[in-house]
UniProtKB/TrEMBL annotation:
Gene3D superfamilies: 3.40.630.30. Residues 72-201 form the BioF2-like acetyltransferase domain. This is GNAT family N-acetyltransferase. Pfam families: Acetyltransf_6. It comes from the Bacteria. It comes from Aurantiacibacter sediminis.
Amino acid sequence: MLEALANEISRRTDRIVLDKLADETGHATACDRAFRQAGWFVSRKPCDVNHYLDLRGRDYTAFLADRPGQLRTTLKRKAKKVDVTLSTRFHAREWEAYEDIYADSWKPEEGAPEVLRAFAEQESVAGRYRFALARHDGKAIAAQFWTVDGSTAYIHKLAHRKDAKALSPGTTLTTALFQHVIDVDGVTQVDFGTGDDPYKRDWMEQKRLRWRLTCYRRSSPRNWPHIAKAILRKLVRRKSAG
């Protein structure tokens, strides 16, 4: 099917970029092979990383004991300063609180908030929705949206208000959600998505590459300079390695 898709795309465009592909499941390699077999020239490069956690049979207590000392100290000092609500079903008012927090956070503007909300509602219906909200003096100051699919928990969105940073509400929320997905949902792996943010290393223990495939239709003259440069770079790398 992938090769048929690659052939069909060649009738519609002369260049396509496939980004942030995983290869531990073989997907990046399968796409690479399909486009090459369909006659495309394919340039493959690492473009991002995925931080994840393999629990290896640990419960929440054992997992927390393995976290950096500074993180555990922060949790002890700050956890009692916020109230945490954890939901497994979508609630419109909680989601509106999340959107308000996000708008008041350090995060860039959400590209398609309506799509994210629809996804959250869909995951709630399917029983995969996990959402945590932190309040201080009754005001919602931080929120996180996770899902659980099979034996894996996925961390999708997190945000806190800029003026709430000193309370470390994100640490408290993350800990609450880890405890739930590990001890209640029984997951064996937690996936923190893409991005090499330093704070992810406090929670995750492994990381893996994500790949970008830039596929050029060989018959298009505007692609020839790009193809020539890619071939030249490959030759230079081989010479340097040799």
